[in-house]
Design a protein that fits this description.
Helix content: 40-55%
Distance between the termini: 27 Å
Strand order of the largest sheet: 1-2
Number of helices: 4
Largest sheet: 2 strands, parallel
Radius of gyration: 14 Å
Number of domains: 1
Number of strands: 2
Structural class: mainly alpha
Oligomer: single chain
Length: 96
């Protein structure tokens, strides 16, 4: 399985990036600010990584904790307050 995953990564030029302290810190801000519920910290890290990497669009199937009006507006408010750009957060069918 690992070899297949690595070959797909190489074939499609996927960039692999490990979360660093900036991502953890921003994710904690999302959790503490109730942007994302505490028990869903991976979702907070997902949004934080997209923010730190300065991506234009974050595509997700997670409608409950990522792609919803509350999260979009709370991320925009938090990121603006902290001086980060705000990635567009969209459903996968919006980019297909």
């Amino acid at each position: 399985m690992r070899k297949k995953l690595l070959s797909v990564i190489r074939e499609h030029g996927v960039r692999v990036w490990l979360a660093d302290l900036r991502v953890k810190k921003l994710a904690n801000s999302y959790l503490e600010g109730k942007v994302i519920p505490l028990e869903f910290s991976p979702e907070a890290e997902h949004i934080a990584a997209a923010t730190i990497l300065d991506v234009d669009v974050l595509v997700s199937w997670n409608l409950r904790h990522i792609v919803n009006l509350h999260t979009k507006s709370a991320v925009k408010e938090m990121n603006s307050k902290l001086g980060y750009n705000v990635p567009q957060i969209v459903r996968s069918d919006e980019v297909l």
